[in-house]
Design brief:
The structure holds two protein chains of two kinds.
Chain A (H helix, E strand, L loop, with lengths): L4 E3 L2 E4 L5 E6 L6 E8 L3 E9 L2 E5 L6 E5 L5 E5 L8 E8 L7 E2 L3 E5 L1
Chain B lengths: L3 E3 L3 E5 L4 E7 L6 E7 L6 E7 L4 E3 L3 E6 L4 E6 L8 E8 L6 E3 L3 E6 L1
Parallel strand pairs in B: 2-11
Antiparallel strand pairs in B: 1-3, 3-8, 4-5, 4-9, 6-7, 7-8, 9-10, 9-11
The chains are: A mainly beta, B mainly beta.
Chain lengths: 112, 112
Amino acid sequence: KAGVTQTPRYLIKTRGQQVTLSCSPISGHRSVSWYQQTPGQGLQFLFEYFSETQRNKGNFPGRFSGRQFSNSRSEMNVSTLELGDSALYLCASSLGVGNTIYFGEGSWLTVV
Amino acid sequence: GESVGLHLPTLSVQEGDNSIINCAYSNSASDYFIWYKQESGKGPQFIIDIRSNMDKRQGQRVTVLLNKTVKHLSLQIAATQPGDSAVYFCAEMNQAGTALIFGKGTTLSVSS
């Protein structure tokens, strides 16, 4: 059974640009969530989707957005990139509320 | 607010020793906890979980202990191996069951 798959794995963007990251959850998982990991702030929750609906959102500015498709795949978008957005962005999936959450390998974003 | 923390940022052990990694949480209403292992350049990998109706849960070479009285969680690794070297995170699931709140992690270094 394939795990959580994220693309791209590495990318470099310039300040002011926008970026879209993609995630395919584990087959059968309908909940997809996103996390940001930085050395200073650690792992922080961005948002969670279930059946194409955002159910929960972390404390991030509106430049961070996401969506989920009918096949449970998800994308997150960061607009007007800032240097501080450089981070490992992790996608995770689970069967639903209160179930174990499994992570992908992440997308490394560097903003220059 | 909700927060999860770890007592020590680093732990160094010899191969074959038993390792104990500790974690304190602040939300007494939390009922689901997960330990993750993160190797360099990879996403967090599920190790073991425990729900609040249990005090102890065992896996292969790993044991998680939960002390709800003092809001403390620990991960015990038996016969630690060099391959166990990684950053270990405890995470607490939020009350909605949709997101994880992570501690800052403990780096385990195993020397042979």
